[in-house]
Write a structure and sequence with these properties.
The chain has one domain. With about 100 residues, the chain is an all-beta fold. Strand 7 and strand 8 form a beta hairpin. The relative contact order is 0.21. It is elongated, with a radius of gyration of 18 Å. It has a 5-stranded antiparallel β-sheet with strand order 1-2-5-6-9, with no helix packed on it. It starts with a strand and ends with a strand.
Length: about 100
């Protein structure tokens, strides 16, 4: 996984991020005769932190698998289809 996050100096509390996840070819059985092809996935996101009164609030928006690529994942002797493009939005507040 390779990622970068950059604070945007013109907007206090705003940060943008980008990640690339690479998984090489993987064998998923003991005989090493069944394998999963390598794959690459790209994700992007943004984070904005601010205060509501004295309460710190953070809003995050992420897009996983930006290019909506199909890929197989091998985990614990099982094969899973990777998730398609996924949007996530979250809000956290520290009380």
């Amino acid at each position: 996984m390779l990622g970068v996050e950059q604070d945007i100096h013109g907007v206090q509390g705003l940060a943008l991020s980008a990640n690339m996840t690479y998984n090489s070819m993987t064998y998923i059985n003991q005989l090493n005769n069944f394998r999963i092809s390598p794959w690459v996935r790209f994700d992007v996101g943004a984070r904005y932190s601010f205060h509501v009164g004295k309460t710190p609030v953070t809003v995050r928006a992420n897009v996983y698998n930006v290019f909506n690529r199909n890929y197989w994942r091998g985990l614990e002797k099982a094969v899973y289809l990777g998730a398609g493009r996924t949007y996530m939005l979250s809000v956290t507040a520290d009380f």
